UniProtKB/TrEMBL annotation:
Superkingdom classification of source: Eukaryota
Broad class of the protein's primary localization: secreted
Record-linked InterPro entries: Peptidase_S8/S53_dom (IPR000209), Peptidase_S8/S53_dom_sf (IPR036852), Peptidase_S8_His-AS (IPR022398), Peptidase_S8_Ser-AS (IPR023828), Peptidase_S8_subtilisin-rel (IPR015500), Peptidases_S8_3 (IPR034197), S8pro/Inhibitor_I9 (IPR010259), S8pro/Inhibitor_I9_sf (IPR037045)
Transport as UniProt keyword: no
Gene Ontology CC terms: extracellular region
Active site per the UniProt annotation: D167 (charge relay system), H233 (charge relay system), S572 (charge relay system)
Span of domain Inhibitor I9: 33-128
PROSITE patterns cross-referenced by the UniProt entry: SUBTILASE (PS51892), SUBTILASE_HIS (PS00137), SUBTILASE_SER (PS00138)
Subcellular location: Secreted
Signal peptide span: 1-24
Protein name: Subtilisin-like protease
Length: 792
């Protein structure tokens, strides 16, 4: 074979496998399984619908070989081992459908069958923590203050609530799940504590009342065959939502503090749908179904589709499962995803989901750089450097260590291959992080500098500066661009610049800026659609200390036992704070609908930080509803909201009409649907702006003509007769008129409506999106709705 032929073969081989991989990635790491979603369950007795049975039979018939045995034994269906077990799961309680191993062609043909709403490849979803597990793990000794921007937290227990958590499982031995002082498990609980080799029924108690795992789609690893957490994420999230109070969360003798979850009075049920590799859609749907029949009150999901995939609603297992859960009265709280300013969308945006963004808490981990002359540059990061003894090291800008022939961008970003060993050796190296490489590459850069004999590393990265990461035993810190300029000019002006490492080991914890938003979207870039504002709310998600798996030796300093608590960051950590609060609201107001609970949480949010200044983003600009929805969640406000905005199933169905679903699909999805329901002929964005949501979003607004929306509030204060008056915070140049401007309630649970008209005061069309709010007050309660007027 000639060389060029070989080359050609090699190339085409490469292209083919690349295409396959791309396709697999698009399908969300295909496992060959398709989910067939058939809408609401026909009945609650668990029997399959006829169309469901027929369809499943037709799938099975094609997949099984029928072999006749002796006449006495009759016919038997035999498993076709070449195709694998075709039927993976059936869904029949919470909703209807199944998951099966079928070909793409078969999937397409199933999608045409009557009764089928959608057919889509079983996706692999991701957990919403930032960076790699190893990168995030470090130990500390803080007081665990997982309370969001709190007012007074009331601790009296209400009725029993159960928080279901879809995640990586749980480490039941953690002190956070002790059940001391908890009463009998509520009799309505129908869930299970599934057994496994490393998990017995005695691992469940009055705190951890349920534990299920879902193992039959990616069943190759033992990790799927137990409710036990082998990652840490699920344990962390569960203890944040509802962990019991742990009085001495001491770490390696450094300090002691008290750890407790958002609502320590709540029970926990864990649904293990994720492993180290991600979370299977078919398992997520099965968990939703189980949670609905088990009797949970709140579901907490710190996971979602990668934002690049952006599945449509009926191919998104979370949107589907959540719809049915909400219809059954369960509040579903999800993380908004971690994709920062460079990405395009919030995930988990369906209007029946309570979507949570992440903010910082009043905690800052500083690893400062001290320049000669004792000039201190604030850096962020935690490390366990052994360098204490020698106080002074030379400082070098990586750019100055360029190896001949190396690439400029590479060297300024501390690409290991681009730097000259002799120049790096023994020095603290200043590196950029603007080469578009992902965050994981920080580890590689650290290893590179270390490999060349460098002493330490300071990354210039404004985005990472907001979040403390661990850098293991190597001295590393993250500084801002502004501070970097100062250092670089210092290097320029100083001979033999030095770096005092004495501070680098001490992650000092400062009470500073709280809250500040991170993992957010810039302006409208993140809005999946302009008609319902997302995210709904923000909550602490940065540097959150909570329970950890008990055998994570990789997280322990040399010679120490594994940590019992760990600090990690992400919208994953923000979500369970809100789940805990939703459970508290539910416990005090057991009859409230999920939308009433969401409204209570949103309309009582705060927009100011602990210094009484407006909440900012990590770049210092004042946050907008695009960043934090209604604002930062408060703990006591949602217990007494005064008025709530109740969003009906009908509103959600109208949203589905707007999203392009036809009436037959919508009829199949909804358990109860008014017989005269029809998608409105003019199901446009303005129509959806009118669904009774606690926030208002208007698209294509340029001021002329004016746009109107109406809203309806329910008086839930229990005070009977009361009068609310409106106040409007209008953006400049926009006239906001509310009619009527007074709402006179005569009794509890009364509903009253109002209309808002937005118009421009200026002749020229609006060029930029504008924000404001509408607040109803009766002297006792403040009920605030943010609004967004988008020019797009
Ligand atoms: C999961 O795997 C275990 C062990 O193989 C098996 O006993 C169990 O039936 C499986 N469960 C499901 C739901 O498939
Ligand atoms: C440092 O000096 C070099 C060469 O004189 C100059 O190009 C560079 O802009 C200076 N950098 C700073 C940050 O002052
Ligand atoms: C932790 O314990 C689990 C369950 O006993 C085990 O399967 C896992 O391999 C252990 N992990 C480590 C890192 O030792
Ligand atoms: C929608 O349009 C159809 C035909 O144009 C009409 O018969 C029907 O009444 C309209 N429905 C509504 C809700 O406006
Ligand atoms: C908006 O509402 C006001 C007050 O009810 C009404 O007068 C006006 O006609 C409405 N405008 C539009 C565009 O619907």
């Amino acid at each position: 074979m000639k060389g060029n032929q070989l080359f050609f073969l090699f190339c085409s081989f490469f292209i083919v496998s690349f295409l396959d991989e791309t396709r697999a990635a698009q399908a969300g790491n295909s496992n060959g399984v398709y989910i067939v979603y058939m809408g609401a369950a026909a009945s609650t007795n668990g029997l399959l619908r006829d169309d469901h049975v027929d369809l499943m039979n037709s799938v099975l018939r094609r997949k099984f070989l029928m072999i006749y045995l002796t006449p006495l034994q009759g016919a038997a269906w035999y498993y076709d081992s070449t195709k694998g077990n075709a039927l993976v799961r059936t869904y029949r309680h919470g909703f209807s459908g199944f998951a099966a191993r079928v070909s793409e062609e078969e999937a397409r043909s199933i999608a045409q069958k009557p009764g089928v709403v959608s057919v889509f490849p079983d996706p692999l979803l991701q957990l919403h923590t930032t960076r790699s597990w190893d990168f995030l793990k470090y130990q500390t000794s803080l007081e665990v203050d997982s309370k969001p921007n709190s007012d007074s937290e009331s601790s009296s227990p209400g009725s029993d609530t159960i928080i279901g958590i879809l995640d990586t499982g749980i480490w039941p031995e953690s002190e956070s799940f002790n059940d001391e002082g908890m009463g009998e498990i509520p009799s309505r609980w129908k869930g299970l504590c599934m057994k496994a080799d490393d998990f017995s029924s005695s691992n469940c108690n009055r705190k951890l009342i349920g534990a299920r795992f879902y193992n039959n789609t990616d069943s190759s690893t033992p990790e799927w065959y137990t409710p036990r957490d082998m990652v840490g994420h699920g344990t962390h999230v569960a203890s944040t939502a509802a962990g019991s109070t742990v009085a001495t969360a001491s770490f390696y003798g450094l300090a002691t503090g008290t750890a407790k979850g958002g609502f320590p009075g709540s029970r926990i049920a864990i649904y293990k749908v994720c492993s180290t590799n991600g979370c299977r859609g078919s398992a997520i749907l099965a968990a939703f179904e189980d949670a609905i029949t088990d009797g949970v009150d709140v579901l907490s999901l710190s996971l979602g589709s990668p934002s690049i995939l952006r599945p449509n609603l009926m191919s998104d297992p979370i949107a589907i499962g959540a719809f049915h859960a909400v219809e059954s009265g369960i509040t579903v709280v999800c993380s908004a995803g971690n994709d920062g300013p460079s990405s395009t969308t919030v995930v988990n945006t369906a209007p029946w989901i309570l979507t949570v963004a992440a903010s910082t808490i009043d905690r800052d981990f500083q690893s400062n750089l001290v320049l000669g002359g004792n000039k201190v540059i604030k850096g962020e990061g935690i490390n366990f450097s052994p360098l204490q003894k020698s106080p002074v090291y030379p400082l070098i800008n990586a750019e100055a260590a360029k190896k001949s022939g190396a690439n400029e961008v590479g060297v300024r970003n501390c690409d290991p291959g681009s730097m000259d060993k002799d120049l790096i050796k023994g020095k603290i190296v200043i590196c950029n992080h603007d080469d578009g490489a992902d965050d994981y590459s920080l580890n590689r850069k650290i290893d590179g500098v270390k490999g060349l004999g460098g002493t330490g590393i300071a990354f210039i990265d404004d985005q990472s500066r907001a979040v403390a990461y661990t850098y293991g035993a190597f001295p590393a810190t993250v500084i801002t661009t502004k501070d970097a300029e100062e250092i670089l000019s210092y290097i320029n002006s100083t001979r033999g610049p030095t770096y005092d490492t004495r501070n680098i080991l001490k992650a000092r914890i400062l009470d500073l800026r709280s809250p500040m938003l991170v993992f957010y979207c810039r302006a409208h870039a993140c809005l999946a659609n302009m008609v319902v504002l997302q995210p709904d709310i923000s909550a602490p998600g940065v540097d959150i200390l909570a329970a950890w798996i008990g055998n994570d030796t990789s997280a322990a300093p040399q010679g120490k036992e594994p940590p019992l608590f760990n600090v990690i960051s992400g919208t994953s950590m923000a979500c369970p704070h809100v789940s805990g609060i939703a459970a508290t609201v539910k416990s005090r107001n057991f009859a409230w609908s999920p939308s009433a609970i969401r409204s209570a949480i949103m309309t009582t949010a705060t927009q100011t930080n602990n210094l009484k200044a407006p909440i900012t983003t990590d770049s210092g600009s004042i946050a907008t509803p695009y960043d934090y929805g209604a604002g930062e969640v408060t703990t006591s406000g949602p217990l007494q909201p005064g008025l709530v905005y109740e969003t009906s199933t009908l509103d959600y169905l109208n949203y589905l009409c707007y999203s392009g679903h036809d009436i037959s699909a919508i009829e199949a999805i909804a358990k109860t649907i008014p017989s005269d329901f029809a998608c409105p002929n003019d199901s446009n964005a303005d129509y959806i702006s009118n669904i009774n949501y606690p926030s208002i979003a208007i698209s294509k607004f340029n001021g002329k003509p004016s746009k109107n929306v109406s809203r309806t509030v329910t008086n839930v204060a229990g005070d009977g007769e009361t009068v609310y008056s409106v106040s409007v915070d209008a953006p400049s140049g926009v006239n906001v008129e509310v009619v009527p401007d007074e709402l006179r309630f005569t009794k509890n649970n009364e509903k009253l409506s109002y209309q808002v008209t937005f118009s421009s005061l200026s002749v020229s069309p609006m060029k930029e999106d504008a924000f404001g709010s509408i607040t109803w007050t009766n002297g006792k309660y403040r009920v605030r709705s943010p609004f967004v007027l988008s020019v797009r």
